[in-house]
Amino acid sequence: MTTVEATGSTVEEAKRKALEQLGVQDESRVQFEVLDEGKRSLLGILVSPA
Fold it and tell me: How many whole angstroms from its chain centre is CA 40?
């Protein structure tokens, strides 16, 4: 089993980056574990990545 860790401004972006790292296009062939969904402040300032 291969494991990669990816971040993005959204969970979907992080998943897309992980798929790219793995060289896989079919999301159904991969198991994802979201460690942190990220945070966005009231006005979109001070964003932490997913």
Answer: 15
Q: What separation in angstroms does the CA of 16 have from each of 26, 43, 47?
A: 10, 26, 19
DSSP notation for 3-37: ------SSHHHHHHHHHHHHT---GGG-----S--
The full set of domain ranges for the chain reads 1-50
Signed CA dihedral, 12, 19, 14, 31: sign only = positive
- pLDDT of 16 higher than 80: yes
pTM equals 0.77
